Amino acid sequence: MAEIQLFAARPEDDRRAPDCAWRRMDALRAGWPDGDGVAVFNRLCLSADDDIEAPYAGGCGGGQGAGHAVARETSELRSALVERYLAAVDAVAVGGRAPAGWRPLFEYRRHPGVRAAQFALAGVNAHVGHDLPLATVDLCRARGCEPAELETAFARVGDALALLVERVGDEVPAGLDMLRVGDPLTHLLGSWNLERALEAAWSSARVLWGLREVPPLAEEFRERMDAGVGLVGRCLLTPYG
Question: ∠ CA 144-149-155 to the nearest 5 degrees?
Fold first, then answer.
């Protein structure tokens, strides 16, 4: 059975390069039906790719020292984040279990009573609440730095994720149902807040980093964090009509 590592080892090849990750996601899009819940999240990420590039690379002062370093850190954090999502996909593909934060999306991915917007937001919830803290710790370990040194990169990734959330309601892939003004489901999805989720993800990353020398406690905290994210995801995927 596939196992999701608490702290991912830095690979020796270029599999974490952003363009390679996007190619893998594009290949997944071609293999999944439009109505598949995981495919909805995957397509949402790809559809927003052009808009997302700006916060990752923009405002860096034309390649000057500090700005260039932040852009590189942001790109690396983005890559580590996407790889966490792909690791969950790969685990399920070989008969393993996704992390608890992702599990509801994989379990409900073909449920006819769950709308596309629910699938999309549940995916963002898992991506932020589970993947982002661990991706931040992955990058800290790879760079030998403290989380505080990646705070600006973390904020830029958060800006990019905000663009993704904006598309949940009005740019879910063509042909799939979207939220309507006055729809009762709007209240359910409106209970999830990206800003609070990002604050929790940043706190989780700092706690995990502080516990890195005590693996049993780090694993216990990760499990509790993961379970909490999964509970929110399960609520977001409440079948509706």
Answer: 130
Tens digits of residue pLDDT in 138-152: 999 999 999 999 999
Task: Specify whether the CB–CB gap between 161 and 119 falls below 8 A.
Answer: no
Query: CA 157 to CA 160: how far, in whole Å?
Result: 5
Distance between CA atoms of 160 and 74, rounded to whole angstroms? 10
- Note every long-range contact of 199-203, with CB atoms under 8 Å and residues 24 or more positions apart, other chains counting: 200/129, 201/128, 201/129, 201/132, 201/133, 201/136, 202/133, 202/136, 202/147, 202/151, 202/154
Helix (H, G, I), strand (E, B) or coil at 69: helix
Nearest to 165, CA basis, from 102, 116, 230, 121? 121
Spans of all domains in the chain:
18-236
pTM (2 decimals)?
0.84
